[in-house]
Amino acid sequence: MKSRYSLPGRDASPRRPYHAKANYGMPLLLSPLALLTGCHAAPQINVLGSFFPAWMLSIGIGSIGTLLLRRLSVRAKFESHLSLRPLVYFCLWVLLTLGSWLVFFRV
Fold first, then answer.
1. Distance between CA 105 and CA 59 in Å, rounded?
2. Are the C-beta atoms of 3 and 67 separated by less than 8 Å?
């Protein structure tokens, strides 16, 4: 028996919803997660009795170093020759941050 609300050319039989279909690719897709079982603890630095992650101190060293080098480049009248200042200072910050990580905290 056809319903009066059914579309022409289609029967009114219920169809399986999309989520009820078997998905055999999902276990294969999630299997590499079994290899990510864990890593050793992140290095922590004791600063005045409080433990800080080493990456946080590296970011601070990179930020302060970038500000000091910017001030030095302004005094030396070198900053006016830089064309893409935000990119230059961002790259300098990354260099100082990763460099301080390698020098001080990489074990």
1. 12
2. no
Q: Which of 73, 71, 67, 65 is nearest to 99 (CA)?
A: 65
11 alpha-carbon distance from chain centroid: 50
* Amino acid letter, residue 53: P
Residue 39: the pLDDT is 61
Domain ranges of the chain: 44-105
CB 70 within 8 A of CB 89: yes
Q: Is residue 79 over pLDDT 80? A: yes
> Quick one: which of 34, 30, 58, 26 has its CA closest to 45?
58
For the stretch 48-75, pLDDT in tens is 777 778 888 899 999 999 999 999 999 9
